[in-house]
């Protein structure tokens, strides 16, 4: 443009141009001065605004600096907020997952309650299915640290223990064989589900299962006997034997059906042997407490018969304990008979002592030693003097009736009746093994009888070699005692020995009883004690 203006203008014009431009500049400056003067307040306001802006900029700078200092914290807070937001999103996803699988999760949460209901209603098969389902479901998540899963596993484990105790409690009840087999199979299956070491199926596990079975069934057996009243020892013992015989046989049959008759390490079922030994020992302890309370031989015979039948019936399952039972019955029978025989000896001694010479009391009320009819018959036969002992052999071995001569000697008759009564009692429960012991006791009893007579004769000077001058009363007593001694030797001792041998008719037993019950030894004792006249060699 300047180039065009310069080209279009003349030289003169160009020379005047600076002056014209100066005038224009002065005019412009004057106009500017006028504007300044006219609008001076604008500059004041502008200056004030500049000061305000400068102050605000300074303040803005300070705030900006403070904001810069807070930015790291804000950044950290934003990061935390972002993380929380992510967690909330994750939880929301989990909640949504739970909501989407609500029915399935509800079924899992109800497993403990379902298991408890099955146990309460004795649905053991269903309970085992629930336990197996829970194990398969939670086994893969066993390492997951989930509170709900851990709680479910803990509750299922607790209910598993309750189920096992419930099964053992059922074994303590009255059960048939089929139900016993089912319960033991449930126990095996339950142990297989809960065992993680492979112990199930081993010998140790089978032994433990047998011991638990025997322990529970023993508790059932004990509950049966607790209902029996103990007021009457005989009735209590008979009922106890009947209950135990039936229940023991059933129990051993159940045991054999469930576990078989296997041998372990060469031994025949050690748990069953231990149980049988302990149970038989307990039964014998009860029997030992009750037998002393029973003194009636008919009742004792019934108990003996029932006990031997009890032991024999269990012999079919290998638990025959009759040999042990016999020992305790033998002791009690021997004690009863010995007591009866001792009483007979005491009564004989007491009645005989009433006839002592110089006694304070009258002999009128005492049982006579010999009846007057016997003395008269002896005098009538011209045998007033007692003859030496001549053994009287019965004409018939089957004749066990008492010698009639004993009826003439009331003291001997009472003693014989006491022995015969005890023999009749013994006949009810005769045990072959008692022969030797009872023969020895009977020999002692008869020897005691002889010694009682000897003591009476010594006190009253009535021995055979003391038949000198005596008063009529002493002579009469001497004759009566001499006659009694002759009858003891010739009739009483052989008769008692024959009756005792009839209780044990076997030839072998008879020979052993003769060794213990020796009549000849008793006769020799009477001669030694000067109760009989010595036998001359010519008379033998």
Automatic annotation (TrEMBL):
Membrane disposition: Peripheral membrane protein
GO cellular component: Golgi membrane; Golgi transport complex
Main location: Golgi
Any one GO BP annotation for this protein: protein transport
Stored InterPro entries: COG8, Cullin_repeat-like_dom_sf
Matches recorded under Pfam families: Dor1
Keyword entries, A-Z: Golgi apparatus, Membrane, Protein transport, Transport
Entry's localization field: Golgi apparatus membrane
Keyword Aminoacyl-tRNA synthetase: no
Similarity comment: Belongs to the COG8 family.
PANTHER family registered for this protein in UniProt: CONSERVED OLIGOMERIC GOLGI COMPLEX COMPONENT 8 (PTHR21311), CONSERVED OLIGOMERIC GOLGI COMPLEX SUBUNIT 8 (PTHR21311:SF0)
Protein name: Conserved oligomeric Golgi complex subunit 8
Source organism of this protein record: Pythium oligandrum
